[in-house]
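Internal tracking record. Fields below are filled automatically when a chain is submitted to the structure queue. Please do not edit lines marked as system-generated. If the sequence contains nonstandard residues, flag them in the REMARKS field before resubmitting.
Queue: standard
Priority: normal
Entity type: single polypeptide chain
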Amino acid sequence: MRDRLVAAAISLLFLLICLGLFYTQIIRYPYYARLSRNNSIRVIPIDGPRGNIFDRNGLPLVTSRLSFDVAIVYQELRGQRTSLVRLLKDTLGMPGSRIAESLAKASSLRPYAPFVIAEDIDKDKAIAFEEESFGLDGVTVQTRSRRDYIYKNTGSHLFGYLSEIGDEELEDLRDSGYRLKDNIGRSGLEKYYEAYLRGADGGTQVEVDSRGRQVRLLGVREPSCGKDLYLTIDLSIQAMCDKLLGNHIGAIVAINPNSGEVLAIASHPSFDPNIFVKPNTSGQRLKCLNDRIGRPMSNRAISGLYAPGSVFKIVTASAALDTGKINHNTRFTCTGSFKLGRGKFDCWKEEGHGSLNIQGGLMNSCNVFFYNTGRLAGVDAMEFYAKLFGYGSLTGIDLPDEVKGVVPGRTWKRIHRKDNWYEGETINYAIGQGYLMVTPIQVMRMMAAMANGGNLVKPYIVKQIDTAPIMPEKPKRIAIKDETTNEIRQGLYEVVNNEKGTGKHAKVEGLYVAGKTGTAQNPQGRTHAWFAGFAPYNNPKICLVVFLEHGGKGGLEPAGIARGIFEEAKRIGYL
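SYSTEM-GENERATED OUTPUT FOLLOWS
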């Protein structure tokens, strides 16, 4: 009886084994065959380098460099993990905690595929590691391209920066060919032209044996580079703008006023985009930069909103002259203040400027003259002409995150402030104060219209993508009389070239410069300072705006900075 039970048990076990083998080898054959193939075939990715960025003269500004990464296939390490840890510590100087963290991620995320555990290591260390790791299964040194911003902080807001795609983003971008660890443009040209700059990745498909050693090459897909961008930017002018901003908080924009070509665009504080190239630190570095005083990640040139102060007097003058409220012979007397009802509005010059016409009003930037001028023109006309010059609208520059600003008026105030418009607000409006908020690039666009005789240009930065030129948008003629433009232009000439002009510090020997200064009241402290101008006066080739947060008077440092930029443009033969 006992022998029968033992025999029956053995028969049952044998039957179960046969059933298991049948299930594994017949029923589950497709699954295990596929798994076997996947384990024996390895895909080694090859990065497609991003396109390069060049200035208007063909000088490289942003390129890609070769970097070295250490990757492992975790399941092929077997009993060699201790040797790998020791090698990573001795050769690359990696701390034990970081090694443990990397190995844990490799084990859980991609145990059967190459997983990078050390990125962007030094070339000499990469060579030494490859030599020392010979014989270690599942360990390899890979190459990939990384961004190189040649001039570091110079033009940082223009170029922007890259960072790795997050897990949530990857779900949305996977269909577009992005994969884990890929970089994507986050700001500036890197973001705006991401689709052109991004290269297409390639790779090699190899068959490996049970120890992870390559047996044969199965196929190669060559990577393709992204498209190169050729800019309108002049490196010499760009570098000078960044240099002259120095430790100031502010922005500079310089363009060709006839075409809209951007010659330079700078915002300070700036940052070095190369710091985001280093792996695993972009999120921490971004937070650190955003927490700094001055918000260095903010591009003030296109997204900073400020009261324009006296540079807006160009709009006030245009509204009054063009509608016939004043003319060349109209004069107002400045005694140092202007009274409206019980209110008193001061001029910046306590003793007053005396009797002035429009050109004298611009030259001296007399508040009282423009209080009178704005009151005659009226809020509706100033709102209309402000919009005519592009305020309250995007310029359309090929950079992300531009803002529109605010052009107030009767309807705007009823909607946003639930109140009527008062005449005292018109007085403030006339000198660029109150609810009015503009960006530096909008001020530059207004001044460009004065420089070119009444055309509103669309600023642009990229003039060619690879071999394909980009056709600039034709300037839009502003519905403003030539007599109005000529009258204001003459006043802008006096601002710089008359010894009493508020912008005399922008004067350049041998070059006729015209411009307008601005000093805007700021509830947070010291006044903001502006200078906007163009040169040469009779044949303008460069128009610029200099803005300094808490910069004091526009006729001092901003005008001096503008002079330095004009001098540099003259030195390099642009003027």
